[in-house]
Amino acid sequence: MSRSLKKGPYVDIKLMKKISGKKPAELSVIKTWARNSQIAPEMVGFTFGVHNGKQHVEVLVTDDMVGHRLGEFSPTKKFVRHGGKMQKELEQKRQMAEIAAAKAAKEGSSAKK
């Protein structure tokens, strides 16, 4: 659900204090836990270390990101992959087929010489 227009965007006060009056080149990574803070136009060019629950993910703010939340660019869950035993078997077969094709191509090119 979006925030009421009469309230305006939520930008963390501490975060704005850290960047106020400074240029993006002056500061390195600004660490923050305020994932719910919206990105303001003043933040463009700065690099934020947004906490994802385990570590700080570096986010370089661009013009396209204005209006979005900082947490959108720091995923909290790591995708491993779908499948299981069957998926591993299919990947092994695919890998063996690629190796066999590469060997056949190599033998074919050496036979022509």
Kindly describe this structure.
By secondary structure, the protein is α+β, with helices and mostly antiparallel strands. It has 2 domains: 13-73, 30s Ribosomal Protein S19, Chain A, CATH 3.30.860; 80-113. 31% of the residues lie in helices and 12% in strands. The chain has 2 helices and 3 strands, in the order αβββα. The chain has helices at 13-19, 85-112; strands spanning 29-32, 47-51, 56-60. The protein has a 3-stranded mixed sheet, with no helix packed on it. It is elongated, with a radius of gyration of 24 Å. The model has no long low-confidence stretch (mean pLDDT 89).
Brief characterization of the structure:
This protein has 113 residues and is α+β, with helices and mostly antiparallel strands. The protein is 31% helix and 12% strand.
